[in-house]
Structures are given as C-alpha cells and as structure tokens.
Amino acid sequence: MSVNHLENRSGSPGSGDSPIDSYRERWLRSALKVAAIVAVVLAACWESGVLNPVVLAEGLPALGALFADAIPPDFARWREWIVPLYDTLIMSIAGTAFAVVFSVPIAFLAAENTSPHRLVYHASRTVLNALRAVPELIMGIIFVAAVGFGVLPGVLAVGLHSIGMVGKFYAEAIEHVDDAPVEATRAAGCSGLQTVCFGIFPQVLPQFADVSIYRWEYNFRASTVMGMVGAGGIGFELMSALKVMDYQQGMAVMLVVLVMVTIVDSISGVIRRRFK
Amino acid sequence: MLTIDKLTKTYADGHQALRDCSFTVPGAQVVAVIGPSGAGKSTLIRCINRLVAPTRGHVHLGDTDLTAAGTAGLRDVRRRIGMIFQEFNLIERLTVMENVLAGRLATVSFLQAFLRRFPAGDIDRAFELLGRVGLDGYENSRADALSGGQRQRVGIARALMQEPELLLVDEPTSSLDPKVARSIMGLICELAGERRIPALINIHDVGLALGFAQRVIGLNGGRVVFDGAPEAVDEAVLTRIYGADEWRDAFRQEGGEDMLAAGGAAS
To answer: Which of B41, B43, B60 shows the shortest CA–CA distance to B52?
Structure first.
C-alpha cells in the first residue's frame, strides 16, 4: 500500500495506455519489490541453516539435554555473586553517567539548530555513528587490553558505546525545540550560551532524562555480559560456570540476572513516568 | 528616540518585505502599525532589534546605530529594547517568576543565572511587576498552566523587567479572544504611558489600534502608506492601507466600526 502511495505521488501520469493499465503496471511493480525482499529473506535463512531440517533435528534434542543438565539450578555459591552483581550495577550507572556527560556537549554540536558550523555538525554526527557502530563487547576487549581486567574497562566500553545513541537522541530533541522562547531570549540580549541554557535546555530536559534512564536500563543488561571479556561484573561468573560445564550453576546465575534486570527495568519505568 | 531611515529588507527568495521605510518615534508615544498580512509589519519590528537582518537602511535608538552594532554591541542594545510576542514565547516548563526574570538574564553572569541568583532588587521588581500586570500569587505556577491572557501578562512583565527604552510588540492580541485582547492592549498602552516608554505595536485589529494608539502607521507592500493620528484614519486611508473591500475584514473586534465612525466624525 505504502509503496503504491509513494509512486502515486512521484510517478509520472500516463505511463500506461489507460488508467487500468497504469494501475496494473503499478501493482506489478510493487509485487516484484515484495517478491525480491521475500527471496532475499529466504536465501539468508537457507544459507544460515535455519531451514536445514537435518541440523535442526540434531540440534533441538541436544538443546533439551543441555536444559535437563541445568535443572535444578545450583545456588550454592550465591555469596560469591554479590560482589560481581554489585560491580555490574555500578558499571551500568557509571557507564551511563559517563555517556550523559559527554553526550550533552556533542549533542549541541550535532544538532542543526545549535551547531556552530556545518563541518562541526557533520563531524559530530560521524563520531556518533562511529561509536554506535562498534559493539560494547568489542570495546570491552579493547579496554581490557588497554587498562587491564576489572570494572573500569567495562564502564568505559558501556559509556563510550552509549554516547553514540544517547548523543543522537539528545541532538534530535534539540532539533525539535520550540523556537519561540529562543527568539525571546535573543531579543532580550542574551549571548549564544545563555540562549542555549535558558531557551533550549529547559525544553529538552524531560527528553534528556527519559533517554538517559532508558539507556541505564539498557546498559545494565549490557553490563551483565561484559564479564565474558574480562571487563568485570556477573558475566565472568556465568562464563566460568559454562566453561567447566557446570550448567546448574550457569542456570542459577542466569536466573539471578533475570531477576536483577526485571528490578532495574521497573525502577527505570517508575523514574521515567515521573518525568512525563 | 527611535529613528528609522530608509529601512529595506529583501529576503533570500527575492521577496521584498520592506521598502525604504522611514519614520521617527520621539519620546513616549504608543504607535500602532497596521496593514494587511504580508505587509511587512512583523519584518519591520524584527529588523529594529535585528532578529531579522535588514538589507539596507539604518535604525537608531538614541545615539546607538543598531544596524552598525557588532555582536556585543547588539546584545547591549537589545537589553534596552523589550519585546512582546504574539505567541507569548515563554519558556513553558519554567515558572512565572523564572520567565519574568528571563528579562534580566543578559544583565547577570552566566553562573548567577544558572544558579538563579538574581540580585534581590531584581526579584523585588519582578514581584512588583507581577502585581502590576495582575498576576499576584502566580509566581510559582508553571507557564504552561496559565491561560492565554495570563501568559501574555507574563510576557509583558518580562519585557518591562528589562527596564526598556523601547517596547516592540508583535501582534499581542492575535492569539486571544476579543475581550481578553482588549484588556491586554489596554494594559500594554497604560504601562507604556505611565513608564514613559515608546511602544511600536503591530496589530491587525484596526479597532484596537484606533482605540488605544496615539499614532497610526499604515504599511502596504512593505511601504509606509500612512502616518498620522488615529482620528485621521478614515475610509480613504483604510482603503489605501488595505485596498478596497479588504479593510472591513480587519475589524475583528466588536464595536470596531463604531470606533471608526467616531474617529471619522472627529476628523
């Protein structure tokens, strides 16, 4: 439908001989596009083995066996998990704070209406895209190599990757501000920085808070796996259990993570509703 | 004193919004600028404080040439000009008090403003102004919780907070219903009069313009086509400003025609 709409607007009238012909031709063209997309999806599924009945027939029972090995979950080492869980929590908070602090200035440079120059605008957008393009786990590996094992490389990895998304969302909030109060502050003789702080900042503050808290929620989930690359947190415990094939303990760690993620999600939800 | 000399504005798309506009506002005088939409009223007012950059011509406020002012000079002279807007242009999420104090933003340091540490004298004056515009007790309400008329009262208090030497007022009543429009227009003219501040008021409502202003400037196609006392505005003048037939539409307000009849009889 939407494809048809677009073509109605941009397509040249009278491309067919009669109205009915042109209508059929348009239908045929959109049908071809849909068929092309379906073909690509099917090819990808086939190549990756998702549609391979032999592999699936072997894999599913093995998965069932693994699951059976993991029952009942083994919580015997729960005392050992308290510190890693605490590390995971502070990693997500510190990482998000790191991202927020650097996202605010970059966002003002990456928003069309506040950027000092086109070049600065494009440069900051490129930086944000680049940060988004590198997954936090890859950044984790790099930072572990740079600053050693522990929570700090996790904070840096989570924080740096977050700037890409947080900065972009902040910049979009800035681009959608109402110009009227900005005009009023300029008319009263305010400088550029004052205009930004008093004309724009109060308007975008709720969106900034919303994005940041949502990102904290996301970062907590991301922090639970950082331990797998040695960047601190509960992920390390999960990794160790899986390495020695102690699936009962692995299952217990995953259940604890699930509970923590649910708690963090609901806290985040409550805080975000307050900012509405 | 405000002197406007051959002010011309041509937009990038070639549209000529102002053509060689010249006039002088000596001392405290309430001047209504009337004209059909697209006549250049809004551009005229924004060219004075350079929210829109004029293409040619000069604007002087006292001895200061606004058109020649650099960045810092422009900020200085903007502090001396209060502006009131059609859509009020308040910072919706901040309180009434913070919006009024925004009129003093340019006079305090960045840090002072950020920490909301305005001089005690400013705060006293803000309270006094709030009382004067009829918003006693509203200082802690958020701007977006107020009615249109109340918001415009905040806008007026903010402009006066600057202790301006000139008021630029852009369609102050267009977003308000007729009864509120009348009281807002009355309030602006009263305050301008008692504080001896010259005011340039864009208004498309001819009834209000003739009822409140001491002088009327008519714009059409970016040119000044009339400049005189409200009593001198008759059908012929309105036809010159609005074109034949069009001007009756400009009387939005009830009783506007009566006022014209009274003005016409006096001339």
So the answer is: B43
Q: Nearest CA of chain A to the CA of B154: how many Å?
A: 12
Q: Determine whether the interchain pair A187/B81 forms a contact, defined as Cβ–Cβ distance below 8 Å.
A: yes
> B76 and B177: one domain?
yes
Closest residue on chain A to B76 (Cα): A189
Domain that holds residue B124: 90-163
Cβ pairs A/B, distance under 8 A: 75
Q: What is the pLDDT of residues A218-227, one digit of tens each?
A: 999 899 888 8
Confidence check on the interface: ipTM exceeds 0.85, yes or no: no
Does residue B212 form part of some domain? yes
Distance from CA of A97 to the nearest CA of B (A): 21
- CB contact under 8 Å between A198 and B158, yes or no, is no
